[in-house]
Amino acid sequence: MSTTHMSTGSAGSLGRSVDHLDLLESHAVFVLREVAAESERPVLLFSGGKDSAVLLHLAVKAFRPAGFPFPVLHVDTGHNFAEVIEFRDRRITELGERLLVASVQESIDRGRVVDPGPGASRNRLQTTTLLDAIAEHSFDACFGGARRDEDKARAKERVLSFRDAFGQWDPKRQRPELWHLYQGRVRPGEHLRAFPLSDWTELDIWQYIAREGIELPSIYYAHRRPVLERDGMLLAVSQWVRPVPGEDAATETVRFRTVGDATCTGAVRSHATTLDEIVAEVAASRVSERGATRADDRFSETAMEDRKREGYF
């Protein structure tokens, strides 16, 4: 698999010079097309978050007017924000694409994983649910919206991240990707994770969303909602997150920088209601979105790497 910086046509058609977002877009489109062409059964993972929304937008650029040459898969923890599920269903319906939902609750019901109990995070349980879905559908390539700037473990991954027959990742056994040359071959039972957004930053994502007018779930914009402070994070009050003795809920103006399991995804205080305001806010931030708002990543430097070795995305 070789690469070249191809144009998607947007810059030329508008008569403007190519900027860094054009280069990032061109490379991401290239990765989508090449992996889809060389894989037998690829799939695009979609959480409903900002990165997967950008990835979905890039897939439209890569393959329209034809349909996607792969289905879209959401690993549903059962503890999702209602706004995100509404956005997921509506967006996939608008595109007319095929949505597969792999349910953590079904994994619990089948005895594949153990329910951590009311109010506990199900994030780690996603690994088994994802690997079961990959095996069930014989997927040999999974596109994801992970970026290297999110976490130290993600920074170790290549654009093409190879997983063995057990879905496990070994950071010491990765193929070189010099000059954007990729080797996408896998043996039966193995698969690869492809990250077209690897080289993007959070700021790049927001600048691209603003430039392209990409729709997102409403929780990414400042809004009023009941929250409580726990372990230094602002968690949204919900059926899974309730105040315990010593905690008080209060209605505040917040937004989310990332979305995930509602039991471990925190909000940030913010009055940014427009894309320009969010871009300015992100540009001034010195903490990554996961480091600031994901409880399951904050308390161990190896938390993400440990989960990725097990097969987590």
How would you describe this structure to a colleague?
The protein is globular and about 55 Å long. 36% of the residues lie in helices and 15% in strands. It is an alpha/beta fold and 313 residues long. Helix 2 (20-38) crosses helix 3 and helix 8 (202-212) runs antiparallel to helix 9. It is built from 12 helices and 10 strands. The chain has helices at residues 10-14, 20-38, 50-63, 82-95, 104-109, 126-137, 152-155, 202-212, 275-284, 289-293, 295-298, 303-310; strands at 42-45, 72-76, 99-103, 141-143, 160-163, 191-194, 223-230, 233-236, 249-255, 266-269. A hairpin with a 2-residue loop joins strand 7 (223-230) and strand 8. The model is unreliable at 2-13 (pLDDT under 50). The longest helix has 19 residues, at 20-38. The protein has a 6-stranded mixed beta sheet with strand order 3-2-1-4-6-5. A 4-stranded antiparallel barrel has the order 7-8-10-9. It has 2 domains: 10-206 and 303-310, Rossmann fold, CATH 3.40.50; 217-298, no CATH class.
Which keywords apply here?
about 325 residues, alpha/beta, Rossmann fold, 2 domains, six-stranded mixed sheet, four-stranded antiparallel barrel, 12 helices, globular, disordered N terminus
Distance between termini? Answer: 23 Å
Shape designation: globular
Mean pLDDT: 86
The total number of structural domains is: 2
With helices defined by DSSP (H or I, 4 residues minimum), what is the helix count? 12
The secondary structure category is alpha/beta
Work out the number of β strands: 10
What composes the largest sheet? 6 strands, mixed
